[in-house]
Amino acid sequence: MSFRISFAPPADDTLAKMRGGEAFRDEMVRTLGEEPYGHASSAVKRERDRREATVSGAIVLYYVSRSVLTVTVVRLVPLP
Question: Is 67 exposed, middle or buried (0-12, 13-18, 19+ CB in 10 A)?
Answer without folding.
Answer: exposed
